[in-house]
Amino acid sequence: KSLYGLATCLENMGKSEEAFEYYDLLTKLDPNDPYAFEYRSEAYTKQRKWYNAIDDAMTAYSISYSALGDRLVDSELISDNILRLAKHDEAFGDLTNVLRLYSIGYKQNWHVLQLLGSIYEKRHMYIEAIECYSKANEVRYMGNPTTIGLINCYRSLYELDTALKLVNKALNTLPDAYILLFQKSLILFLQG
Fold this sequence. Notes:
Layout: H1 2-12, H2 16-29, H3 34-46, H4 50-68, H5 76-86, H6 92-105, H7 110-122, H8 126-139, H9 144-156, H10 160-173, H11 178-191
Helix pairs in contact: 1-2, 2-3, 3-4, 4-5, 5-7, 6-7, 7-8, 7-9, 8-9, 9-10, 9-11, 10-11
């Protein structure tokens, strides 16, 4: 903790190079300590070095996952940095590779699968988006976020019967959800 405090102080003083020497030392002193990687990930985040931040956050997550197993569902640090990175279109190729590898390695992470699905959907890659949203629902049914994504993708592919089935299924649990009612009316309009 004291090395982390020293590194944080140095960073706050604008001495990032020196701070990172201590962050690096923390990861070397105990390479099985997830917090050391998480601290460095947070420092990378402050410097807007998203790839480094994601890499360290993934390391912290995998160490924690080894110890906690299924009790660990998600890492906000990874998700937050992926979201920041996702805002930069030029990072699309690298980002999808990061997300794809991450979703393969950590199949229980529904949030990453949902993120990857939304990125594919925004780029009109509907088949890939459907695959990600479907896997996310298998891992942890989230209702609206992934269901709306699936509905949008099937509607965009003009697979209107499938989209309508999804809307009706979702309306069984959320009968007053205006977005679902809007989706249903749009699909019925497209069906003629």
